[in-house]
Design a protein that fits this description.
The protein has 804 residues and is mainly beta. 12% of the residues lie in helices and 37% in strands. Strand 26, helix 8 and strand 27 form a beta-alpha-beta unit. The longest helix is centred in the middle third of the chain and has 17 residues.
Length: 804
């Protein structure tokens, strides 16, 4: 997988037109450049005569909330960052290759309550900040002159989510030109109902739109090619496309000796659907698809391609710290690589559909995906303003539009992503049954309820019986558009939901933080397929999966730290992740690696030794990979390993070998070198060292990529470290590091991973945290970019980038 090919796919958007020898008629352009932006409401902001020269010029994706400032006047739920109203305007001429065509604008996501106008004419509104949508521009388009596209995003109710959502046009926008007869948006479906080693059946459905005024005979052709470009199956069908509607076509492909998509080998085929009228090509779309089988079993768990597999999953939100939710493909690629290395094989999209290219990465990198539609249904949940579970919560949220829009939002999520081989479940909701937030039931007066708002049954709250009614409807909606995957939901109040129809209408039932219910419920409901849809990091939580064949999955909360859902000020982010917001691994990451991987690994970190009366178990959040402590202080050295045995060596002296995933030694500190060795069958197979760091001496920078694509404004990601004279990280360094750029580039954000930092994310300087920073630099054109990092009293560092 090359970066150039990934970026090409980004431009194509996965579903966009394939170029071919036949020069297909569909044209698609990434439409992100040269938008003007104004934060605040503007009277008649959609009109063509409005003077917007004083507005800021921005590059999409764009999140205005991340520009801050952080303030207690906003909400802890959404990271103490502002919302408000924002206007975007873009002046453009129709590209020559789109003139005379039907022209559409496609938004992958706008947060939220968006309305779009072309040349002063309203095209439509979309309340959801997570839905993707399209409008036709043709009726109001000036084909040979200037056009004005205007977008208003309204996010005045800042505390409208339990996590940070950002604000604005935070995902890609595309301009699409088609012939009157074309494949409908998300109009291609692909499933593999029959798969054996010898052959597979590929079912292709196509919705053919005929925007002309007469019935038109259309030849629909499906071509499937393997990873090397060799055509492996074709089929065609003639349909009579009726005017003003979508006409269905169904084609069956026989694939001989298919190469299956799997976690270890995420093999992808290319499916091209081409339309011809009277022998002339009029449209063509291309998607990457996979051949694989999935199955959940109430007694044996999950099977991929007939093989039993434990889902080692993490939950993920949309943001990436300093970038807010305007996170490009290359940033997610780096983060997902780190999660792959920890042994993760599955992602839960919490708690909404994500950016289009995120799924592309999952398809290509071999992650199994639970795609999720909602965090609330008809009644709002608590959104904390002063801190998590502190004060009076707000009740704003997506429930305000549930009755009118839920069916369409669910439909669009499924149609948009239904051809992704990575997706194995559709989730209709997260913690909708959180006890007393909002639904309640008499059973809450009894039993064990690890998650509950308030005390016991609250009769003034909506009855839990509504859960089954609403769930049944949503499941019916989902199955109209895909029956090849199970429908699930993540349940927080199983003790309450068991008294309703809610679990029964689901194909598979997710339990959040309720491992203790697995044995009892498995016995009581033997046909119920149970898995862990949200779980803590403890060893016992994994043992509940690893030791029970009928439990297929664990989804850790969470894979990466995220903005919002914070405690009291000054904390403005949530630190539950394996990685911090900069994407740097935390000690918990390596403990998980010891549980989830087989490649030999060792990791060593240190904490103050427990005192009398303390728990003998060290909280993993307290340990740090540093060998700098007060002389003679008693410390606990903690090792994580998946090896058969581990040996600790201090300054050349062995302190003995121990067995287990987590091992520790209590020793008096002495400066020097701490070494942890891992052994299998008596042979050393892994080692990790910590060295006592001396005084901070220099900055050290490493770029994850130095060659950038200027056309897509590909971000450079640079890890900057404060090191001593020997190159050792100085873990407690907090120097303010300044970043300057020479050449066609700019600093777009600096992230330290500090959950309580209120520094300006867009400023060209930031304090190091645990001795490190992550710097994002974006090319503004082609050429050589020199990035200089400086800090008082330290040797500076320069990194050279090349944008082409």
């Amino acid at each position: 997988m090359t970066r150039t090919f990934l970026l090409t796919l980004l431009l194509l958007g996965g579903w966009l037109a394939a170029t071919s020898a036949h020069a297909q008629e569909r044209r698609t352009l990434l439409f992100n450049d040269d938008w003007r932006f104004h934060k605040g409401d503007v009277a008649a902001g959609e009109t063509t005569g409005l003077d917007d020269h004083a507005w800021h010029t921005v590059l999409l994706p764009h999140d205005w909330s991340i520009e801050g400032p952080f303030s207690q006047e906003w909400a802890s739920a959404t990271a103490f960052l502002p919302g408000g109203v924002g206007w975007y305007r873009k002046s453009f001429e129709v590209p020559a290759e789109m003139r005379g065509k039907k022209v559409f604008v496609y938004f992958d996501g706008v947060y939220k309550n968006s309305e779009v106008w072309l040349n002063g004419h309203s095209l439509g509104k979309r309340p959801s900040g997570f839905a993707s949508f399209e409008y036709e521009l043709t009726p109001y388009l000036n084909s040979n002159g200037k056009n004005l596209l205007a977008v208003k995003a309204e996010h005045s109710q800042v505390a409208d989510s339990r996590w940070y959502t950002g604000s604005g046009i935070y995902r890609n926008v595309y301009l699409v030109g088609t012939a009157p007869v074309h494949v409908a948006r998300w109009g291609v479906g692909f499933t593999t109902p029959e798969v054996t080693a010898a052959a597979a059946t590929g079912q292709v459905t196509v919705a053919v739109t005929n925007a002309s005024t007469t019935a038109t005979p259309v030849l629909v052709k499906a071509i499937l090619a393997d990873a090397k470009g060799k055509v492996v199956a074709t089929m065609q069908q003639q349909v009579q496309a009726q005017p003003g509607t979508d006409t269905p076509a169904a084609l069956t492909l026989k694939i001989n000796k298919p190469t299956l998509w799997s976690v270890e080998n995420p093999n992808l085929y290319k499916l091209r659907v081409a339309l011809s009228v009277q022998g002339k090509p009029v449209d063509g779309v291309e998607e990457e698809v996979g051949v694989r089988t999935i199955r959940f079993d109430a007694a044996q768990g999950f099977f991929l391609n007939g093989k039993n597999l434990k889902l080692k999953g993490v939950c993920l939100h949309d943001d990436a710290g300093a970038l807010g939710v305007a996170v490009p493909l290359e940033v997610w690629e780096r983060r997902l690589k780190a999660l792959k290395e920890v042994g993760c094989n599955s992602i839960r999209m919490s708690h909404n559909p994500h950016a289009d290219y995120f799924y592309t990465l999952c398809d290509r990198m071999g992650f199994l995906v639970m795609d999720e539609a909602f965090d609330e249904w008809e009644v709002g949940k608590n959104k904390w303003v002063e801190g998590w579970n502190v004060g009076t919560p707000a009740k704003f949220g997506s429930h305000e539009h549930f009755q009118e829009w839920a069916d369409r939002d669910l439909r669009d999520m499924i149609l948009r992503n239904r051809n992704r081989p990575s997706i194995i479940m559709w989730s209709i909701g997260n913690e909708i049954d959180y006890p007393n937030d909002p639904y309640s039931h008499e059973v809450l007066n009894t039993g064990r309820n690890p998650q509950i708002y308030g005390k016991g049954y609250l009769p003034d709250h909506p009855p839990a019986s509504r859960l089954g009614v609403l769930a049944r409807h949503l499941v019916e909606v989902a199955k109209q558009y895909d029956t090849s995957r199970p429908i699930t939901a993540a349940l927080a109040g199983v003790v309450m939901s068991n008294f309703t129809d809610y679990p029964d209408v689901l194909d598979v039932v997710g339990y959040n933080y309720q491992e203790f219910r697995y044995p009892e419920d498995h016995q009581k409901y033997p046909n119920r397929i149970i898995y862990g849809s949200e779980n803590g990091m403890g060893r016992d939580a994994w043992a509940a999966v690893d030791s029970n064949a009928y439990i297929s999955a664990q989804y850790l909360w969470t894979g990466i730290d995220y903005l919002g859902e914070a405690g009291k000020w000054p904390q403005r982010s949530n630190g539950a992740g394996l990685l911090d917001m900069a994407g740097f691994p935390k000690p918990e990451y390596y403990f998980r690696q010891s549980l989830w991987t087989t490649k030999p690994m060792t990791y060593v970190a240190v904490a103050p030794a427990p005192k009398a009366g303390d728990s003998p178990n060290v909280n993993h959040r307290r340990i740090q990979p540093t060998w700098n402590w007060p002389a003679g202080e008693q410390v606990r050295v903690v090792g994580f390993t998946n090896c058969e045995a581990a040996e600790l060596v201090l300054n050349g002296k062995s302190l003995g070998r121990k067995t287990g995933r987590e091992v520790y030694w209590d020793v008096p500190y002495q400066p020097g070198t701490l070494l942890l060795k891992g052994y299998n069958q008596g042979k050393e197979v892994s080692r990790t060292e910590l060295h006592t760091a001396t005084a901070p001496h220099a900055l050290q920078a490493t770029a994850y990529q130095t060659k950038l694509a200027a056309s897509t404004h590909e971000l450079a990601q640079m890890e900057v470290r404060v090191v001593d004279q020997s190159g050792n990280l100085v873990q407690d360094a907090t120097h303010e590091i300044s970043v300057s750029v020479q050449g066609p580039g700019r600093v777009v954000g600096i992230e330290s991973g500090d959950l309580a930092s209120h520094e300006d994310y867009q400023a060209p300087k930031h304090r190091a945290y645990h001795g490190k920073l992550l710097v994002f630099v974006q090319p503004t054109g082609a050429g050589r970019i020199s990035v200089q990092m400086q800090a008082p009293g330290l040797q500076s560092q320069q990194v050279t980038l090349q944008a082409k």
